[in-house]
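Hi all, posting the design record for the shared folder.

TITLE: backbone redesign
STEP: 1 of 1
STRUCTURE INPUT:
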């Protein structure tokens, strides 16, 4: 599996200890993850999850306005992505509760950075095996492995930015992806000021995937919020 594909996944990191939060954030970013969001409370974690649709959550158990177990249940209620607990709560009952609720792994502080990275990558490989699928839209297909669109038997290449944007939309197929989240998927940690560029890329993508780009049925605008990719069969 292509590690670059996994490193593009969005990770939500939740811990109320600022020093530990910064340390884990640095470990992930230095390894190559370029889409890591942080939160210090249940409230903030839910807000970040709503905005950025993470692919993996790393949660502490003890949080100032609740606990990681309840947070996991709330996160998984709408989007069933994997969860790794990273916590000082090392009692067997805590571990059993975490796994019983559906956690994918459970690590105890203090920890070795290499072990954390190993476990994170193992979870992502298990959870996102189906890399680079061929996706059926209303009037075309997207072949992510070849970075191309097939429409009326014509093979139309995608640019790197178009591929990044369509990948972010496909990961959240049928759901709204905000303008900020799309800008970040394509332009990284400092996405501000790219709204006009995003609109231009969306227009070019529609020219490739839609039969009538001026009346899109696969890549639709949700006014004031963002965009949504409609995938056949989903």
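Okay, here is what came back for every position:
SEQUENCE:
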């Amino acid at each position: 599996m292509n590690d670059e594909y996994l490193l593009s996944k969005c990770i939500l990191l939740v811990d109320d200890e600022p020093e530990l939060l910064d340390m884990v954030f640095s470990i992930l970013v230095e390894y190559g993850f370029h889409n890591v969001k942080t939160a210090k409370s249940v409230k903030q974690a839910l807000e970040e999850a709503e905005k950025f649709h993470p692919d993996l959550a790393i949660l502490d158990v003890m949080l100032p306005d609740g606990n990681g177990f309840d947070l996991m249940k709330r996160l998984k209620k709408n989007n069933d992505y994997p969860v790794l607990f990273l916590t000082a709560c090392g009692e067997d009952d805590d571990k059993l509760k975490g796994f019983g609720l559906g956690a994918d792994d459970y690590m105890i502080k203090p920890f070795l950075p290499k072990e954390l990275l190993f476990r994170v990558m193992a979870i992502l490989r298990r959870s996102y095996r189906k890399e680079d699928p061929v996706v059926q839209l209303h009037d075309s297909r997207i072949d992510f492995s070849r970075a191309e669109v097939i429409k009326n038997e014509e093979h139309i290449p995608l640019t790197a930015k178009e591929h990044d944007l369509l990948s972010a939309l496909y990961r959240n197929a049928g759901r709204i992806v905000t303008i900020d989240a799309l800008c970040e998927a394509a332009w990284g940690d400092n996405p501000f000021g790219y709204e006009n560029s995003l609109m231009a890329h969306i227009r070019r993508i529609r020219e490739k995937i839609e039969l009538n780009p001026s009346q899109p049925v696969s890549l639709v605008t949700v006014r004031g919020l963002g965009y949504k990719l409609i995938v056949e069969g989903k």
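COMMENT: The chain has nine helices and 14 strands.
Let me know if anyone wants the other runs.
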